[in-house]
């Protein structure tokens, strides 16, 4: 009896191997494709790129106030607005040098942002919200003005090179 089972298995074994070699068409397979484009914000100079540094110049009205205005373009995808804030206050400082001149610092700078000079808003660590016209949210950049102004220190021997770092945080309104 065991011989018959072994013979039957040996006879059916080649059929199983042959059946695995035959391709059976599965037919069309439909795949549903869903693309999720995340909201995105691009911040750059109007010509592209970003500023390596911004030079502050004395104001014509008050030579103790140093200021600068630079244009910035904001491009949004899948958004109608964004938030911008200042990470840390901008304080321009002069390091003490070998001549004995002490360290000196400007007052914290005022950082303003807006579409034009009439609508500039003071920025701080609390984000300010800006809305872009619905017709320009997908392909065209919107131009803004970044304005920086700081009051120079008082006292004798305040000349020298002052340095500071401004970090702006841009976030989408998602």
From TrEMBL:
<feature type="signal peptide">
    <location>
        <begin position="1"/>
        <end position="19"/>
    </location>
</feature>
<protein>
    <submittedName>
        <fullName>Fimbrial protein</fullName>
    </submittedName>
</protein>
<keyword id="KW-0732">Signal</keyword>
